[in-house]
Design brief:
The chain has about 375 residues and is α/β, with parallel strands linked by helices. The protein has ten helices and 16 strands. The strands form five sheets. Strands 3-6-12-7-13-14-15-16 form an eight-stranded mixed beta sheet, sandwiched between helices. A two-stranded antiparallel sheet has the order 1-2. Strands 4-5 form a two-stranded antiparallel sheet.
Amino acid sequence: MEKQGNSIGVVAPQRAHFDEPLTLRSGAVLPACDLVYETYGTLNAAKSNAILVCHALSGHHHVAGHYADNPQNIGWWDNIIGPGRPLDTDRFFIVGLNNLGGCHGSTGPSSLNPATGKPWGADFPLLAVVDWVRAQARLADRLGIDSWAAVIGGSLGGMQALRWTITFPERVRHALVIAAAPKLTAQNIAFNDVARQAILTDPDFHGGHYYEHGVYPKRGLRLARMLGHITYLSDDQMDQKFGRELRNGAFSFGYGVEFEVESYLHYQGDRFAGFFDANTYLLMTRALDYFDPAREGGGDLARALAVARARFLVIAFSTDWRFSPARSKEIVNALLKNGQDVCYAEPRCNYGHDSFLMDDPQYHAVVRAYLENVKI
């Protein structure tokens, strides 16, 4: 690993293979699996300085740095990880991985099903957040990490951090839950369903076995991502960025791209459909829908979180309407009800739900200040 300034520099992914079957929450069993991951920094002798970064819906293991053969491929959270950055690699050993069901090297729908010798496709079992956490625990075992100094994530990543504190309370000392919610609202489930229907009704979907037909449901995935992007941004940000600007300065009185915001959404949809797998998108959004740890506590989130031993930092963004601050405060209030240790911050960042990905000084200062007080 080569350092460049305060950036991680050149990194390389690694692969861990697990022969032991993994029983999933659905009851299905994965006979074996691979997890692709990257690490940054150095694991200390006591193995007490490790931080797990959980990825969001379309994330993966490439969290920071870049690849030697592709300098433009910079990790999705590079602005917060590196020497002297809030997730300081001079102090911490950072682990990022691609979740099960992913499409960036970990076992997922495009992997070969050992029972058929063909890609799993729609036969890949549905996953829950707890399944990802159990798989991540296997990677921690492989790396010799008994307890994470912290587990951190935004959006779906924050839900995984929360799940860690419940499923493996003795293995998490701090949980940083950012732009997340304890469960989806009906509106959020509705957004996910519309996105999935765009994929499921694409003529090239072929019941999820499109790999065998040499086609790809690009149109459906493109529409799903366009819808998602609308919900990830704030109204103010979209207005400031695009307003009602016309792409060619005048109406063309047709249904092509007229407004700059349309051009942006088309670009994002095309770009995403160029590298992401439609079956993975279906799996990830369904896992989001299913997430509801309070369900195991009779609907009482405080009761579900009572087992947690971690200290918490919960961060929400005022412009995030998909997972609004009120949703984060549900987590905070449940922890306070139990008398558990929790800090809450609500930085003013104007990027809506995507704020957790941004290089915002106030937001980064909160994360930095919290992690500087984490004992290793």
